[in-house]
Amino acid sequence: MRDYLIEKLYECSKKPYQKYFKKNEPWQINKSELMNYPENSLGYGLGNFLYKYHFDIQEKLEDHDIIHVLTKTGISVYEEIGMQYYLLGNGKKSLYLFAVIASGTIFYPKQISYFIRQFKKGKRAFAFHHLDFSKMLFLPITTIQEAFNI
Question: In whole angstroms, how far apart are CA 131 and each of 87, 93, 126, 128, 135?
Fold first, then answer.
């Protein structure tokens, strides 16, 4: 029930967040084009992630799925919350991030040790949350992970 509630909250907040808070331009690429990138590249990894989970590119939210690829974070509700803890540790601050962390901590108190581990991982990594990943799609995933200690 709580997973359903959190997912509904996300769905209700996604459109206003995209429209009013995300100022970046949407990437001009689709997931089938991503599969044409070199096999170990970030672009290919993103395409593979999108196909694996039957997702489409979310306009202006492309970085979110890139973070999944780079951090190897799953897509369950508590893992999504954990990824926000990771990003907080990495230095990201936004109203949306704080809302997810607050609601996630309340709904998933038994996952607090996982959340703390994710925060610490984010803290150990060099700040990367602010990068323009659209310009990094040809780079090997491992090169980015090693460069930023992800």
Answer: 13, 14, 11, 6, 9
The set of residues, in sequence order, having a beta carbon less than 8 Å from that of 144 and lying 6+ positions away, is 42, 70, 128, 136, 150
Q: Specify whether the CB–CB gap between 43 and 138 falls below 8 A.
A: yes
CB of 54 closer than 8 Å to CB of 34: no
Type and span of the H or E element at 95: helix 95-107
Q: How far apart are CA 43 and CA 52, in angstroms?
A: 14
Other CB atoms within 10 Å distance of the CB of residue 45: 23
Q: What's the first-to-final CA gap in the chain, in angstroms?
A: 33
**Each residue of 57-87: pLDDT tens digit?**
988 789 999 999 999 999 999 999 999 999 9
Domain holding 125, by residue range, is 2-147
pTM of the model: 0.87
Which two structure tokens, joined as six digits, stand for 105? 């901590």
Q: How many domains does the chain have?
A: 1
The crossing angle, in degrees rounded to 10, of helices 77-89 and 95-107 is: 130
Q: Closest Cα partner for 122 from 81, 91, 76?
A: 91
